[in-house]
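Entry for the shared binder. Reason: the reviewer on the internal report wants the predicted structure included alongside the sequence.
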Amino acid sequence: MDKSSSDTMIALTSTNYNMWKPRMEDLLNLRDLADPLDNNGVKPDKKTDEEWTKMNRKTVAQIRQWIDHSVFHHVAQEQSAYTLWEKLGSMYQAKTARNKTLLMRRLVNHKLRGGISVSEHTSQFQDLVNQLSTTGWVLKDEEQAILLLSSLPDSWETLVVTLSNSAPNGKVTMQMVTDALMNEEARRKEAGTEQSYVLISETNRRGGGRNGGRSRGRGRGQGQSRGNSQVRGRSQERDSSINNFRHSIKA
């Protein structure tokens, strides 16, 4: 196998079917081995029985090469590429109500946590959206954008409010939200670097001013208390909006 077409390929496990499937389809198309799947296992008139049998075997071999040993035993006896492909789909792409519920719960509870970059967070979010779409539940762009905004912690509340208030016609889009998240992350990193220099300089200047430090600390504590109350208020408003959205989806 040439290196260029297999560098990005991954082995199928019990948890990565939605990522594995499109990559496998691309690989089969690059190798001109997709006909058994595209034709639902039926031989086209232009091919002889020998040609079709040979292609089917190659397609089966290509697919199996990228199936992890923990999954392989499920399809070890399959001789038809199309049957093998459909069996994998039925195993990992269930369209049951239970599967839809589990995926939606994971999506709603997906939160941006410390130590995770915005890029990683949005990638994980999109993976859940893609998994949900394979069950037949396709979320609209605005619904995805609202859920992504709801995944942000309270420390991002200012951005959430700003985006919500400035959205054209009151509708946020995924492009709008993801761009804003990337920009905000970059701004915070830059501000954090600058703040660290300021804190170091201020600490050196203060020296032993304990009383002044306590006085300033009390002032900051009062201001922080007021700020926390405002954030909690905005957070409650946002949670109310998200709950209304969840109920509208169930309806």
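Summary line for the report: The mean pLDDT is 83.
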